[in-house]
Specification:
- The structure holds 2 protein chains of 2 kinds.
- By secondary structure, chain A is mostly beta strands.
- Chain A contains no helices and 28 strands.
- Chain B has a single domain, classed as GMP Synthetase, Chain A, domain 3 (2-Layer Sandwich).
- Chain B is about 30% helix and about 10% strand.
- In chain B, strand 2, helix 2 (about 90-105) and strand 3 form a beta-alpha-beta unit.
- In chain B, helix 2 runs parallel beside helix 3 and helix 2 (about 90-105) packs across helix 5.
- Classes of the chains: A mainly beta, B alpha+beta.
- The interface of A and B includes residues 63, 106, 171, 196 and 306 of A.
């Protein structure tokens, strides 16, 4: 091991499962949600201490599966098992319920704002991915597309870090890439290699690579090949980039992997696993230019939580600051330290 | 999940119940370290009621001691069950009841897997996948109607 995962603080967030944590884009607030139907915002008190700054508990009637921030940081969205998506807007120090988006038939599992601020995406057990378009004049979201490419439950969504390109992960073992083409959203690529539910995925800082994690206890690294690439890899229609699995990381995780995050600041990959562990992987410097990428485990904590770890979030401003949440009802803050060889 | 009024397996074979666990003297000794064993797991689930018949899962041979493994080193529990007929539409509900019962009674450190005995159901892999997806299980147990049905199955006169 050439790194260390140092526990900084434990936040007793709930008596029940915490499903999701998410840092705001400037890294000053951490939002959390879970089975207690509450959203909590955590902020710094003094230099080191993080405390609960506010609680929103009157929007959802069932578990809140995930929360997401808009890139401007003034809007927060929550996805609930009650089939609703709530949009919250900053008013001073508080976040106030602005609107509720309805349309999904049953459990909404994830929600995500695009980098451009133009779109919001939601997904759920009804197998659909919805794209909502932001209307600035009315300060509201209207449905722009309902994508039914997945054949099962859609678990998680991730927007490309620069473009309006969406990746979705599903119980049907695939990841789909959606892009907008002359006002129409369509599936540009289906990433098929996992042998069970894909729980989550994340782009690297460039958006040219993607990491995914699965119930099959592996991580996979995918690479985008643009049209006319040197390797001669062609997509079916010859226009959209085609994504290929270039690396599989197996043998480390003992249970389903529920989340994976690719840190845009450090390039480290962190995983949240059903075996109570958090693991940190780093890419090895390749000796040859064209050799496939390889990753090594540089730090881990096999007892990071008392129960399943559900989600992770890298602080977007403070390199190496990581938040995790668990079925054990706690949120933990960690610092990853990399040691020189 | 649809519940039909007509039982699918009208005339199931009924098996005898196993003897109660024999209490040893050491069971009362607080100084003896006593880990949870598979017989205790079996005792938790054998009295679960079948959704269709006024019989327990043990009496219908849906669960037995051989289908249970426990590893206290890794805190893992595996339960296999056998639907009475290979096209039983109740299989998911039975599996969910087993999962719910263990969720409500076992210490939280255990990782529980619930699966159908290999070859015992035509939709074995789909049902196994559903029963071991914690998000779907959580959502199912949050559903009022389903939770009421599950609670009826796992409520027993003994407990």
């Amino acid at each position: 091991m050439i790194g260390e995962l140092i526990e900084l603080q434990t936040l007793e967030a709930s008596d029940d499962r915490i499903w999701c944590v998410a840092w705001n884009p400037i890294g000053t607030l951490l939002a959390s949600c879970g089975s207690d139907k509450m959203i909590k915002l955590w902020g710094r008190e003094g230099e080191r201490n993080w405390i609960c700054k506010s609680t929103m508990n009157d929007s959802h009637t069932r578990s809140i599966r995930s929360v997401a921030w808009s890139y401007c940081g003034n809007r927060l969205a929550s996805a609930g098992f009650d089939a609703k998506v709530s949009i919250w807007e900053r008013q001073g120090q508080e976040f106030v319920l602005q609107t509720i988006l309805e349309g999904h038939e049953n459990e909404v599992k994830d929600v995500a704002f695009s980098r451009s601020g133009l779109y919001l995406a939601t997904c759920g057990r009804d197998k659909s991915v919805w794209i909502w378009e932001y209307n600035e004049e009315e300060n509201d979201f209207a449905c722009a597309a309902v994508l039914t490419t997945h054949t099962q439950d859609v678990k998680q969504l991730k927007w490309h870090p620069q473009k309006d390109i969406l990746a979705s992960c599903s119980y049907d073992d695939t990841i789909k890439i959606f892009i907008e083409d002359s006002d129409d959203w369509s599936c540009a690529c289906s990433l098929e290699s996992h042998t069970s539910t894909v729980w989550a995925c994340d782009f690297d800082a460039t958006g040219k690579r993607l990491v995914s994690c699965s119930d099959d206890r592996t991580l996979k690294i995918w690479q985008a090949y643009e049209k006319n690439n040197q390797e001669g890899i062609r997509s079916t229609n010859g226009i959209y980039p085609v994504w290929k699995c270039v690396c599989t990381i197996s043998g480390y995780h003992k249970q389903p992997i529920y989340d994976v995050k690719w840190c845009p600041l450090t390039g480290l990959i962190a995983t949240a696993c059903g075996d109570n562990s958090i693991r940190i992987f780093r890419e090895e410097e390749s000796k040859q230019k064209d050799s496939p990428p390889s990753f090594s485990l540089i730090a881990s904590n096999t007892q990071a939580h008392l129960q399943d770890v559900n989600r992770l979030s890298f602080n977007p401003k403070e390199a190496g600051l990581l938040a995790s949440c668990s079925d054990d009802g706690t949120i933990k803050l960690w610092r990853i330290e990399q040691k020189l060889m | 999940m649809e519940l039909s009024s007509e039982p699918q397996n009208l005339n199931p074979t009924i098996y005898e119940r196993t003897e109660d666990r024999i209490i040893q003297e050491s069971d009362y000794d607080n100084d003896v370290r006593d880990e949870i064993d598979r017989r205790e797991i079996f005792d938790l689930i054998r009295s679960i009621n079948d959704p269709e018949h006024p019989l327990t899962l043990e009496e219908l041979h849906v669960v037995d001691l051989d289908g249970i493994t426990i590893d206290n080193q890794t805190n893992t529990v595996q339960v296999q069950f056998r639907p009475t007929i290979p096209h039983c539409s109740m299989a998911t509900l039975i599996g969910l009841s087993i999962r719910a019962k263990l969720l409500y009674t076992l210490p939280t450190r255990y990782k529980v897997g619930v699966n159908i005995f290999e070859g015992a159901h035509i939709q074995e892999s789909q049902i196994n996948k559903q029963l071991n997806d914690k998000e779907r299980v959580t959502a199912a147990l949050e559903n009022q109607h389903l939770r009421a049905v599950v609670n009826r199955c796992i409520t027993t006169s003994e407990s």
